User: What shape does this take?
Amino acid sequence: MSPRKVWVFAPDSGGIKIPDSVKYDIDYRRRFFDNTDNMTRLFVHSTSLGVRAVQLIGYQPLVEALMKAQELVGDFFVAVVIPRGNFAANLDLVSPLEPEFVCACPVLR
Assistant: This one.
């Protein structure tokens, strides 16, 4: 199955450039990013498919959803990308996941 939308993010003058051909799917945001229960269900279902690893952007709703999933099905191998800003606060947010490694991204906000 191929994805409905492909998002392309590229650094451009210190910001994020989104090509005109790529549109933000607000329905996806409502259904998943803004709904931690749905994200948790996705993480839990992925384990039934044999997936026990996740590369996560360190945003609060995603961290919360993965923490709930770990309570239900056990640990994941976690790699985290944290956005720019307050490094210490972002690191504190993702630390309960006990990530295998953390990357800081100067582009993500």
